[in-house]
């Protein structure tokens, strides 16, 4: 059966925000806000995943993404099976594609994949009939992170049009930066990036962003400062700045906030290296919405499970 024919998004899989249009992003956000409104009233969630199974292949560590996908499925009455790299037969020489085909033979309804190789969900998606959700592929994309970031921005800032968002840090190795740039631009925000020259990709401005290397100049007039972790696991050692030196030039601290708009929002996808890219007082301070982002991750992932498996379009005010 053609999965796209029976889902309102008109797409089989969520592989990246580069592939989502404004209407599809809006549908996912509307549905996520619907689920959040239900949670706030303590009413039961619709069991749109009842009798359905999601297999989650997590071949890289994760706290937020893995647990929120699991909670999202459970909230909707579905089941999850998690397979890590260590627990799978890939260690015996099985390829990722053979692993995915083997899983599909057991007839789950959806597959969630986190993998260190850029493009791996796209490769799997071409071979499988079931929907595939990219939970982070190397330094390529992390679409559900960008969607939960958008949900949080919508809550705190209202509109995307003209919103000025600065992404600070290791832009070159960040799948979050790439997914946020695509999604924010699709929704009408103005995106800038800032980082050491070694951690800014060449030709980054071809993506339509303004690039800075001076943090103080970059933060001025921004509505949102989204801070990223240095992806040490993806850097070659020659690119690796010392933590102290990095914090001095690119760490966001209370001193940095003096150069920001008073109502600036501080975001971070997590995990945070306190004292490196963000000072602890900013992480825990009044401008930080980091834990709001985490909480919204459950609702965005519920929305994606619901919509990709054939659920109807939902928005606040919809009765089910
Ligand atoms: N933001 C994010 O992907 O966090 P985890 O690696 O903990 O899932």
In short:
With 320 residues, this protein is an alpha/beta fold.
Q: What does this 3D model show about the protein?
A:
By secondary structure, this protein is of the alpha/beta class. The chain has eleven helices and nine strands. The chain has helices spanning 22-41, 64-75, 96-105, 120-127, 143-157, 175-186, 215-219, 243-250, 254-257, 280-283, 290-308; strands at residues 53-58, 79-84, 110-115, 132-137, 164-168, 190-194, 210-212, 224-227, 265-267. The protein is globular, with a radius of gyration of 19 Å. The mean pLDDT is 95. Bound molecules: phosphoric acid mono(formamide)ester.
**Which stretches are low in confidence, meaning pLDDT under 50 for 5 or more residues running?**
none
Which structural class best describes the helix and strand composition? Answer: alpha/beta
Task: Work out the number of β strands.
Answer: 9
Helix fraction bin: 25-40%
Order of strands in the sheet with most strands: 7-6-5-8-9
Question: The CATH topology of the largest domain is what?
Answer: Rossmann fold
CATH class of the largest domain: Alpha Beta
Question: What is the element string, with H for helices and E for strands?
Answer: HEHEHEHEHEHEEHEHHEHH
Total domains: 2
What is the arithmetic mean of pLDDT? Answer: 95
- The CATH homologous superfamily of the largest domain is named Aspartate/ornithine carbamoyltransferase
User: Are any ligands bound, and if so which?
Assistant: phosphoric acid mono(formamide)ester
The rough form would be described as globular
Query: Can you tell me the CATH architecture of the largest domain?
Result: 3-Layer(aba) Sandwich
Rg, Å, rounded: 19 Å
Main beta sheet strand tally, sense and closure: 5 strands, parallel
Distance between the termini: 26 Å
| Beta-strand content | 5-15%
